[in-house]
Amino acid sequence: MQWIYRRAMEGRRAKNLKRRSTQKAPCPIVSVGNLTTGGTGKTPAVQWLTQGLQSHNRRVGIASRGYGGSASDNGALVSDGKSILLKPAEAGDEAFLHARNLPGAIVAVAKDRHHAVELCLQAGAEVVVLDDAFQFWSLPRHFELVLLDARRPFGNGHLLPRGRLREEPEALGRANAILLTRCDRATPEELNHSQQLVREFTTAPVFTSTHRPRGLRDEKTGESISLDYLKRRTVKAFAGLADNSQFYDALNSLGASHLVKLKRERGDHHAWKQNDFQWFDSAAPINQHQTELFENLPVVTTEKDAVKLDPQWFGGPLYSLRIAMDIEDERALLRLILNSLR
Questions:
Q1: Which candidate, 233, 283, 281, places its Cα nearest to that of 254?
Q2: DSSP codes of every residue in 60-114
Q3: Is 30 left (phi over 0), alpha (psi -120 to 50) or beta?
Q4: Where do the domains of the chain lie?
Q5: Residue 156 pLDDT > 60, yes or no?
Q6: Does the domain formed by 2-211+326-340 have CATH 3.40.50.300?
């Protein structure tokens, strides 16, 4: 099946890159994307970039596909920079999270990213960040930032469906900069190997980054809670990511004493329902008092999952773990991007 995917992908890519070569970008555009399916940390990268551009007095729009949202097919404005206009089910989890976390940013969704860019411009954006657009080949852009996992930048080395590669590694020749993510999860040997491997396919500068927990958000009240809350505490924990282990590792590193997990794990972009929450625990409650204690345990999830939940589904508090991206030599990367937009 891999060869079928390759032939179809190469045909679409050639056609759309040819189309792109005859067009001019409607405004300064920066693409944030990856080479593999899921799990490289695009959401915090898009938010880092948006905040960086805003710090240089740019009115920023974010054009997203709106994956999983009902508004994606026809396109819609999620935020005009002042108010959030759609619900998570309409916008999709990632686009809604951008709108919630980035005051002043314009956010639009559309399966056709050309239309999403148009919506951003109509709302007053001066520069547009394309979310997950390395394979949206038809739209011109000024800068291409590609994210790769520091441990396994090319997955198992195979294209879909045998592997996780959307394109072959040679596609990195289109990139203007590479950002290796979650470098703290890689050994020094793994990181060095990945850097050497990436440089076989591109002359673009290679930057490194880590994901850093920066706090908890109480989803029932909107309040910010210190990470110290997790120390020596038993919590119910769940996530719907491409790789849920990274979330659990983060909670353990923050001092949580015990994680009660779901009996059945879910994957990326899962649409949560109340009956999904069947918990597994080796020390299950055996009387009414213990049952009440168990039901009222705090629940911790990701920001992306939290926006799809009703906090009233849970007897105890519901917290989302807020994540920031720390980039080594981030000023140099931001300078590269800003220079490309002149």
A1: 233
A2: EEEEE--TT-TTTTT-EEEEESSSB-S-HHHH-HHHHHHHHH-TT-EEEE-SSHH
A3: beta
A4: 2-211+326-340, 213-324
A5: yes
A6: yes
Residue entry with tokens 């918990």: 279
Mean pLDDT of the chain: 95
Average pLDDT over every residue of 55-77: 97
CA 313 to chain centre: 25
pLDDT at 286: 56
How far apart, in whole angstroms, are the C-alpha atoms of residue 76 and residue 272?
23
pLDDT at 283: 52
Written as six digits, the tokens of 3 are 């060869």
- Say if residues 131 and 97 touch (Cβ distance below 8 Å): no
Residue 90 CB burial class (10 angstroms; 0-12, 13-18, ≥19): middle
Residue 284 has pLDDT above 70, yes or no: no
Q: Are 95 and 1 in contact (CB under 8 A)?
A: no
How far apart CA 250 and CA 239 sit, in angstroms, is: 12
Q: What is the pLDDT of residues 309-321, one digit of tens each?
A: 999 999 999 999 9
Instruction: Give residue 39's pLDDT.
Output: 79
Residue 283's CB: how many other CB atoms inside 10 A? Answer: 10
Nearby residues of 143 by Cβ (< 8 Å), 6 or more positions away: 29, 30, 31, 176, 177, 336, 337, 340, 341
